[in-house]
Amino acid sequence: MSRLPLILLPRPESADPSGRPRGGGSIRTPSVTQQYQRLGPQFTRLEQALSARRLEIANTAPGIEPEYTVVIETYGHVSEFFRAIQRIPGLEWLGENELEGLEPNDDFQDERNAEKPMSGRTMLVLSDRRAIDELLSLWKGYGNDPTMQFARGWAKFRDVFDTLKDIRYWSVEDRLHDTGVIEYWQEELEYAPDQPVRFEAELWFRADVYKRADSQARIESQVNQLGGQVVSNCCIEGIAYHSLLVELPAIHVERILDDADVTLVKSDEVMLFRPIGQMCTIGGDEVEPEELNIEAPASDAMRDTPRVALLDGLPLANHVYLEGKLRIDDPESFEDSYQANQRLHGTAMASLIVNGDLREAGAPLSSPLYVRPILKPDQRTLGGVETLPADYLPVDLIHRAVKRMFEGEGEEEPVAPTVKVINLSIGDPNLHFNGTMSPLARLVDWLSEEYNVLFCVSAGNHSQALRLDMESRAFRDLSEEQQHIEAFRAAQLDTRNRKLLSPAESINALTIGATHADASEVNLLAGKLELYTNEMPALYSAHGNGYRRSIKPDLMLPGGRVIHDEPIGLGDATLRGLWGSRSAPGLMVPFPHDGGSLCKTVYSRGTSNANAIATRSCAQVCDALELLFEEHNRQGSFEQFAPVLIKALVAHGAGWGDIYGHISEAFPEANRTKLKSLVSQHIGYGKPDVSKSIYCLDNRATVLGFGGLVGGEAHEYQLPIPIELGGVELWRKLTVTLAWFAKPSPRNIKYRGSALWATLEGENREFATERTYDWLQVRRGTLHHEVFEGEDISVLAGQSELTVKVNCKDDATSTAEPVKYGLAITLEVAEGEDVEIYEEIKERINVKIREQAPLLAR
């Protein structure tokens, strides 16, 4: 079949939004007396902790009025509590997080289903002495007299007390534990026991600018008293982030590790201490790289303006596969820190974006790749492993890099304002997604909405060995197929250690995981295993749901296969991957050779690879869109809506395919609902077929819509149903993909400033009963992708129209400006059927466009 262009839909009709599903049932709570007795010890501990802290501050910093962060956990949620806090003098709302999977007990149960796990909230509130005393007084009054009247403004605390799970003081343990900073300090002291140590001190973000300045001044004073320094600071109001890069003498870091009795770590201004410079690439083994006998594809006449950007390591720009294809911008002079043979990760990422897997010899991009180095070799490591430098806060470095692209820096003009897609293939091994949005994920969300740019981020790699619940001998005796199943089941059981790595939980970005796939050939040596012979999620690929159980990762693409050592011995079977191998299998990338050769290649693997391939797909979609909009003389619309349309179209051809069946073989006991949940945790919407997204066929028509909506509005699009589908019993498939960028609201649990969703309306809405994905989960992010298919002749019948409605509501905040969205709809029939639908759909749409033209000209 010949390839046919995409179709632009007419201007949509305005409509009222369709309803969205409400939440579950209410929670049964204990009596006031039971609550008071159950929580009495917690309130006693809180009161004692605050009294001790108050006395400590009076002795060490007389004259300072203390403020404390109180952690409040509830079953369910208390509506409007956020606003109630804002109206009470002495209290400041710091944020809230969701508690998931709370087990029912004798006191708290879901009223509809007593065995159903519940959700709750963790709320963080800053309080001065007067307000905390009032809170404690209210609690005592509540317990002694359940009918008491609460003081004006405090009434919501009755609802909090009724559903309270726990209450405590944010202490030193919260600032230090589960952040990786203790292990980081220990490693730094072991490596260089006499050298000062740098780390991040993230402060509680205060709404008042003067209070922020006071908080920072107090921390700077404490650091100076310890003989250290604050190297830099970063404050970004849009993501509620305020942090300091601190350097302390080794002796004081050692004191903290010994007993934590150091004023700095007790400071109530500090939320968390974090490691610095930890997002690193992994070195490889020493093998002789190949010299690929394939001529580097010549670039066609390139545009001058880049459409895609890479924030990564410095690439070897004069390698034969990269020469003339990059535009490197290095304002921090990171190049001075690099030897040519250390330019590994940036070289690989740049080539995969520009060329794809070199084994498949793809055509280069039509525009130069803008590259901003953000990684440096750590000269303390063997070979100089590339990492985010310890001279910068990661959030600050990436924020300034993107701002420079679109706004400029100092007196300079913007350096890459035409970029539509940014590749960010780094992951913080200390920040596994646990339900709370990390600072870097919040930054990515804010930057994408602020500058109207799509980020592609990698899900993250987990290269640690995988331990199976069986002995090595038993594993070796299994069939090859059963070994595959046991390995995947073990990875699923180890999900808590293989979650998304920051910033992969970003809601606005496309998060890309890796499949165990590539185009290389390999002969396995004795004692080596390839765990999957079918395409499956790579064992190293991070997985799990996104924020508020949204679908993440979004998409999966080949990241490279990993060979494993066969388990030996008599103990438990442990699968160790040859992660750092530069030999096949894997994706082929250029290699900066020690000998100075500019045509060597090696193999690599990881979610960074998959993300680079996804970014390349985005560039291909961008080219197709730009050509389409130029042909319709709508270049202005392209500039406005290209990023959200790229996001929609890259995902539009995605599906679970055979991977769904392979995963189901590993979990035969799972019902359909459970299986859908398992599959989406590992592969999101599946593997995209970008070729299906950028052109049509006679039996497949893809139409595009775009626009802007504020809360309480909706747009309706009419898709003509060809006469050929009337009364014919044949397979037909409808795919609807909606994408947008939500403004983040970091202190609100809903987080998304706006919620958009697509619905099928009118006489064909019954077609929506045959869904591939969980329709509730689809609506929780900013990428709404649904596939409907079937053979029922009563739906999608000829000579009718299918109405697709794009709905918008305010979620975390009120939307002052219209939220840009991109919509892709595809109707197709099975290949081999003598039914052509494209031309009729196109002609009926063009008739409507011609009818609208006089109205638009008025």
UniProtKB/TrEMBL annotation:
Organism domain of life: Bacteria
Domain Peptidase S8/S53 positions: 308-686
GO biological process: proteolysis
One function term, GO molecular function aspect: serine-type endopeptidase activity
InterPro entries the record matches: Peptidase_S8/S53_dom, Peptidase_S8/S53_dom_sf, Y4bN_pept_dom
Region feature (Disordered): 1-35
Protein name: Peptidase S8/S53 domain-containing protein
